[in-house]
Design brief:
- This protein has one domain.
- It is α+β, with helices and mostly antiparallel strands.
- It has three helices and four strands.
- A hairpin with a 3-residue loop joins strand 3 and strand 4.
């Protein structure tokens, strides 16, 4: 089988998105409402579409230690960066651009 990048498709199921990586045993509560499913043949475009959707979505209240709730992060602010300053999604996106892994352009089609 020959590697053919045109045959790859990327799917993002942007559902129940926690602040911490969902690869750990207790990632926590969702920080944004369900955003839907993103699909593309362009790895970078689907990443950027997701980050833009997450940024433009309203934040959700999250239960903090000692049973207090935080104030939701406003629309237009990247939720992960606002809630955890050590997280910077632009590093991954800039690396993808530098390595020519895809396009910065995307068309979001809602169905």
């Amino acid at each position: 089988m020959v590697y053919d990048p045109d045959r790859f498709r990327y799917l993002y199921f942007a559902i129940d998105i926690p602040l911490m990586c969902d690869c750990i045993s207790n990632p926590g509560m969702p920080v944004v409402p369900d955003l839907g499913i993103f699909r593309s043949s362009d790895l970078l475009a689907v990443d950027i579409a997701y980050v833009d959707a997450e940024t433009n979505a309203p934040g959700l209240s999250v239960l903090k230690p000692y049973c207090t709730w935080n104030i939701p992060v406003s629309q237009g602010i990247e939720k992960f960066k606002a809630m955890n300053p050590m997280v910077d999604t632009t590093i991954q996106l800039k690396g993808a651009v530098k390595n020519i892994l895809g396009s910065l352009e995307y068309a979001l089609i809602k169905i």
